[in-house]
Design goal:
The structure is a single chain. By secondary structure, the chain is α+β, with helices and mostly antiparallel strands. It has three domains: 134 residues, Uridine Diphospho-n-acetylenolpyruvylglucosamine Reductase, domain 3; 101 residues, Alpha-Beta Plaits; 77 residues, Alpha-Beta Plaits, CATH 3.30.70. It contains 14 helices and 18 strands. The strands form five sheets. It has a five-stranded antiparallel sheet. It has a four-stranded antiparallel sheet with strand order 12-13-11-14. Strand 7 and strand 8 form a beta hairpin. Helix 11 runs antiparallel to helix 12. The longest helix is centred in the middle third of the chain and has 15 residues.
């Protein structure tokens, strides 16, 4: 990089962006750096380091609201809320090991900017659903704020939801406010062994459509299950399907018993208690099974009932290993031996399923040459370009990270 800018306050941040605009110098926005390899490579003249924007500004456990500077590590946020028996219900993932950035720290602002949501999304919603307020600097170098500390403060356009998933291409967030929820008193996981993907997703669908308030539903084929650090999973020698139940102890016990009865008709069942449950769902959340592979990794979002067929279609054209989350609605595919990182096969499978796909991991030349995010329809692409021009007319913030020229 020719320059590295490291502002220490909001005014300095606005000055840095205005400097970039005046000199037509594109900026790569970096907080903890754990997701620099997520998205297309940014062609920038300088980096905008946000490390100084670190720390919890205000946390009111009784109000279930937390405000923090955007570069605050997720680990610090999670430690603070866990001390009050609360949690980030959207379960943000730490992709640093997955993306080869194990020495970098995942941050709260990064999780919101990329709209990262873990296994509990099927019950609690996405990161953007917990994003209440923001202080930021636009690509014009103008400071602004949006939202507030409660949902009813949001009037007019909900800018927080627009920024969530924008990958730092619209504005530089420096302070964010999120909703916190009470942590469950007890967590258990019901396992079903030996199912093929199609049968497994039927079993997960049965659990999700039941009255038992499932908060996680995933399936690991045998090759993936064998990579788990949880002995009941790795030692199964077979595929493992997992259903998570959370809540009050008596309720969890009753619901687990009912689920064992419900799922027992699909295969042999087992049950994980709190510590093993937590370890397993962290692995699923962070896609740890594929962290050591290093090759192309795709994330497909499809209707849950189509997940198994989509994975099979890709595997029919190139070697691919799958991990299914969200009851089959989220399919992780590690692809080997394809010159195009498996793009043609993956895009065709996603289209056939009525979903979309994102290239989460690949080397920089591949990410520069391929469509990392789902190609947009003409009208949507035009709208995306107009929004980009409204927030960042000079195109200085993370240019090209999501789409070429945007």
């Amino acid at each position: 990089m020719a320059d590295s800018l490291a502002p220490t306050d909001a005014d300095g941040l606005a000055d840095a962006v205005r400097w970039a605009v005046a000199g037509e110098r594109p900026l790569e926005v970096v907080a903890g750096g754990s997701k620099r390899r997520l998205g297309r490579p940014v062609q920038s003249a300088a980096s905008l380091a946000l490390g100084a924007f670190d720390g919890i500004v205000d946390y009111e456990p009784s109000e279930l609201v937390l405000t923090a500077q955007a570069a605050t590590p997720l680990a610090a946020i999670e430690a603070a809320v866990e001390s009050e028996r609360q949690m980030l219900a959207f379960e943000p993932a730490d992709y640093a090991p997955l993306l080869g950035a194990a020495d970098a720290a995942a941050t709260l602002g990064g999780a919101l900017a990329c709209n990262l949501s873990g296994p509990r999304r099927i019950k609690a919603g996405a990161a953007r659903d917990h994003f209440l307020g923001v202080h930021a600097v636009s690509g014009r170098g103008e400071r602004f704020k949006a939202g507030g500390r409660v949902v009813k403060n949001v009037t007019g356009y909900d800018v927080c939801k627009l920024l969530a998933g924008s990958y730092g291409t619209l504005a530089v967030m420096h302070e964010v406010t999120i909703k916190i929820l009470p942590a469950p008193e007890r967590t258990r996981t019901v396992l079903v062994y030996g199912l093929e993907p199609g049968d497994a997703l039927q079993a997960l669908g049965a659990a999700l459509s039941s009255a038992h308030e499932v908060s996680g539903a995933a399936h690991m084929p045998a090759e993936v299950a064998a990579r788990s650090a949880v002995s009941y999973v790795a030692g199964a020698g077979a595929a493992v399907s997992a259903v998570r139940i959370e809540g009050f102890p008596a309720s969890v016990a009753a619901r687990c018993e009912a689920l064992r009865d419900l799922l027992g008709r699909f295969g042999a069942v087992e049950e994980l208690h709190s510590r093993n449950s937590a370890a397993l769902w962290r692995e699923i959340r962070d896609v740890r099974a594929f962290a050591a592979d290093g090759g192309p990794l795709w994330r497909l979002s499809v209707p849950p009932e189509a997940g198994a067929a989509a994975a099979a279609q890709v595997a029919g054209e190139t070697r691919a290993r799958a991990l299914f989350d969200w009851g089959g609605g989220l399919v992780w595919l590690a692809v080997d031996g394809a010159d195009d990182a498996g793009e043609a096969a993956v895009r065709a499978a996603a289209a056939a399923a009525g979903g979309h796909a994102t290239l989460v991991r690949a080397d920089a030349p591949t990410r520069a040459a391929r469509a990392v995010f789902q190609p947009q329809a003409t009208g949507v692409a035009a709208l995306t370009a107009r929004i980009k021009r409204a927030f960042d007319p000079a195109g200085v913030l993370n240019p090209g990270r999501m789409y070429a020229g945007v």
